[in-house]
From TrEMBL:
GO cellular component: membrane
Similarity remark: Belongs to the ATP-dependent AMP-binding enzyme family.
Species for this entry: Nocardioides cavernaquae
UniProt entry keywords in alphabetical sequence: Fatty acid metabolism, Ligase, Lipid metabolism
Gene3D superfamilies documented for this protein: N-terminal domain of ligase-like (3.40.50.12780)
Location of the AMP-dependent synthetase/ligase domain: 12-413
Protein name listed in UniProt: Acyl-CoA synthetase
Recorded coiled-coil stretches: none
UniProt key word Acetylation: no
PROSITE patterns: AMP_BINDING
Length: 586
């Protein structure tokens, strides 16, 4: 709905368009919730929260896996004018204590599996509401809450009283440096960002998307919760993000959002299947099709059509193989998809482009409502993050830092005027912390985080992310690479293995899938070295990784090495693995 003043108003209009359409579901239709039922749940949650004394402007915490209840808890609180916010499932009790202290919430919604962390945090909460039962320590169930609203609760008056400048949600930054900051986003912020994005990508009522990334992250909240409210997008909830590839054929998304690691895993899965094909005829056909896909992507990137013979070959490859690959992946209905939250390797984008799937890289931050620049479907410039959203503007500071100004920029960090003043200058420019370039067509390329640029001993500036992506593309066995080289004579890397990729290697070689064993296996080290050599061949001499070590552990999201959104925490890594790094320079 384009003329809504608040997300509540948009939701109410959308819910009336096709009340019997499925709004929320889980795999295999184990749970389906129509728009009529969704709207009824929202009303019941709002009435229940009002009965608990929650008022406009009060915060409401949510700690849940990706499940349909999230949608109506979040929307129910929003319709009261309250401020629902979600935190990462990986949050430790100490982190929960800090986040709830900053937010000041008296209410939290959680589930049985995540309840122990809430209780262990020691935060004094008036109401702990559980969506899936009544274990000890819970004050009521979600069903109890929905049944507890006053009969005369004036729901219409409640949501009509919500103003565009009211805070809609808090998004806590993942805290790569220092404690997380609470980004305050208003109804106006998220409406304007959503509608601006929809001027670049088409989103229709009845479009389908999945919710599998953390709901605490702006990407999931904007692309599922708010796209649903604005356009009636159907959301399939996938509780375990590791199962997303298997869940896609069932969800059959028409539009989709994933982080680079997910795109890399899907690409590696296709390539592994081709490599393992035992029929020589089928294998030859698959390799022919992937070669034609590569040529098609190269032609698209160069802005030229495929030559006559290649165009015919591509059509044959698409009919016999590529269309079946899209169908097997659950991507045969996908009109466009997004990649963001970290840089993606150009080879990965081109792989999907060749398959006939438009993956458009975008750039954004919580502080500007999620999306700041995006590549238009059909006019993607690989290696860039696209053009600035309609209604917003970007420019470069003298040191190359990207500055952003637009209607999505936050009102500030919660209870932190100093950090807010550091982030947003008096002219309204958000200082993003990213170093970038802008070409003559307005396409933005992110070089790296300003704080993460490596300046070697000879004074040469380098982007660790670019080096890491180049090598990772050449080495499917690796999950993460952390390149080190600041103030050093050359670059080194510490690496962790990809659990899925090395499981196949381990079973083939009769080894346990134990990273401590695999990290010292000569064959595996040689395979990684070959990948490093192939990656180095694409880098300038000064950027190349001269030495590496493979750690005997897997890094998981939400740990001291990695944020829940898979960004490396570089300073803690440098401190924790100081001995390993020193050995590489010895």
């Amino acid at each position: 709905m384009t003329h809504a003043r608040t997300v509540c108003e948009a939701f109410q209009a959308t819910a009336l368009i096709d009340p019997d359409a499925v709004a929320l579901r889980t795999g295999g239709d184990a749970v389906t919730v129509s728009w009529r039922e969704y709207a009824a749940h929202v009303r019941a949650v709002a009435a229940g929260l009002a009965a608990l004394g929650v008022r406009r402007g009060d915060t409401v915490g949510i700690l849940l896996t990706n499940r349909p209840e999230f949608a109506w808890i979040d929307s129910g609180a929003m319709h009261l004018g309250a401020v629902p916010f979600s935190i990462y499932n990986t949050s430790s009790p100490e982190q929960i204590e800090y986040l709830f202290g900053n937010a000041g919430n008296q209410v939290v919604f959680t589930e049985t599996a995540l309840l122990p962390s809430v209780l262990a945090s020691g935060v004094k909460l008036e109401h702990v509401i559980c969506v899936d039962g009544a274990p000890e320590g819970v004050t009521m169930t979600l069903a109890d809450l929905e049944a507890s609203g006053a009969a005369d609760f004036d729901f219409e008056a409640a949501w009509h009283a919500v103003e565009p400048d009211d805070v809609l949600t808090l998004i806590y930054t993942s805290g790569t440096t220092g404690p997380p900051k609470g980004v305050q986003l208003t109804h106006a912020n998220m409406l304007k960002v959503g509608l601006s994005a929809m001027e670049v990508v088409d989103v229709h009522p009845g479009d389908r998307i999945t919710s599998f990334l953390p709901s605490a992250h702006i990407a999931d909240r904007a692309s599922t919760q708010y796209f649903a409210a604005l356009r009636g997008v159907q959301v399939t909830y996938v509780a375990d993000p590791r199962t997303i590839a298997a869940a896609l054929p069932d969800a059959s998304p028409t539009i989709w959002f994933a982080v680079p690691r997910v795109w890399e895993k899907i690409k590696a899965g296709v390539e592994a299947k081709v490599a393992a094909e035992e029929s020589p005829v089928k294998k030859r056909l698959a390799l022919f099709a992937l070669d034609m896909a590569r040529r098609s992507a190269e032609a698209k990137v160069a802005g030229r059509p495929l030559s006559g013979v290649d165009a015919i070959r591509y059509r044959v490859a698409d009919k016999l193989v590529l269309s079946k690959v899209r169908e097997a992946l659950g991507m045969d209905q996908m009109r466009w998809a997004w990649s963001a939250a970290a840089a993606i390797a150009p080879e990965t984008l081109m792989f999907f482009m060749g398959l006939g799937i438009d993956v458009c890289e975008l750039w954004g931050m919580s502080e500007l409502g999620g999306a700041g620049t995006l590549n238009p479907p059909g006019r993607v410039k690989v290696g860039t993050v696209g053009k600035v959203l309609p209604g917003a503007e970007v420019m470069l500071a003298e040191d190359g830092e990207l500055l952003f100004r637009g209607p999505g920029v936050m009102t500030g960090y919660r209870h932190d005027p100093e950090k807010t003043a550091e982030a947003i200058d008096e002219d309204g420019w958000l200082h993003t912390g990213d170093v970038a370039t802008i070409d003559d067509e307005g396409y933005v390329t992110i070089v790296d985080r300003k704080k993460e640029i490596i300046i070697n001993a000879a004074g040469k500036n380098m982007s660790p992310v670019n080096i890491e992506n180049t090598i990772k593309t050449a080495c499917a066995l690796l999950a993460t690479i952390a390149v080190i080289g600041d103030n050093k004579p050359y670059n080194v890397a510490i690496m962790t293995l990809d659990p899925d990729a090395v499981a196949a290697y381990a079973s083939k070689n009769g080894l346990p899938a134990d990273p401590a064993v695999l990290a010292t296996d000569a064959g595996l080290i040689a395979a990684v070295q070959a990948g490093v050599d192939a990656g180095n061949a694409k880098l300038s001499r000064v950027e190349q990784v001269k030495k590496f070590t493979i750690l005997p552990a897997y890094w998981m999201p939400g740990t001291e090495e990695m944020t829940p959104t898979l960004k490396l925490r570089r300073r803690p890594i440098s401190e924790k693995y100081a001995a390993e790094i020193a050995a590489l320079y010895a």
